[in-house]
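Weekly modeling sync, notes
Attendees: S.R. (lead), two postdocs, one rotation student

Agenda item 3: backlog of single-chain predictions. S.R. asked that every request posted to the team notebook include the full sequence so nobody has to chase files. The rotation student volunteered to paste the first one in as an example of the format we agreed on. Action items at the bottom.

Example entry:
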Amino acid sequence: MFRTAAAPAALVCTLASMSSAQLLNPSFDDPGFQTTFENWDQFGGNIFLVEDPNYQPPLDGTGCGKIFGNFDGQQQSDSGVFQSVAASEGDTYTATINVLHRSDDAMAGDNIALLILSWRDANGAEILADAKTVLDANSPLDQWIEDSITATAPAGTVSVDFFVLFIQFATDEFPFGAPGAMFFDKASLDLDEPSCYADFNGDSSVNTQDVIAFLNAWNARDSTADCNDDSSINTQDVICFLNLWNAGC
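Predicted structure, as returned to the notebook:
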């Protein structure tokens, strides 16, 4: 089951910083032994490591990836690369990829490229997937496009697969599959770390100045004072804030 990309729900703690979830070979520079890229699994066909800067300069490092369709006459042809990393339920992750299609081999028809986070349980079964279209026939040509998706790991998550997926579709105009290739580079997967809500003034210290800042916002009925995230500014928010403040975060 897919969740299309959307802004995450409001959190009691503001998402303020990110730590790397440590994708290996994130810029697709290192070739693999039985796969195109070291540390990345793959499926489908026509997946290449591009190392010639005269043909296509990479965005980062010494190489980049390229995928195009199989032209096999199937209604849909899927090719892609993915990497699995440990993840924990309830944590929020941001996946980022840079993509490009060139004017001399532009995406056409209904072809699309997706960035996907596939959440897995302890048995390796997919619980849920979050997906976002990052490239299609309407995307700007001949320039790297950075895109990302932010999603929260569902209950039961122990790992997440970071997917770059290219889908080629056949149409009446293109019965063997629409033309076009995608290039991709500089991937990242980051764990969003919540800041301390009790540090209301954001000075990295929890003290009486935060109480004053919170009460000023609360008196002004500012939405940032909705500590318990119930869409209402009331005394419950004061209690919520003071509990966090007394706990030191």
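Discussion: group reviewed the output briefly. The chain has two domains: 11-194, 208-247.
Action items: rotation student to repeat for the remaining queue; S.R. to check formatting next week.
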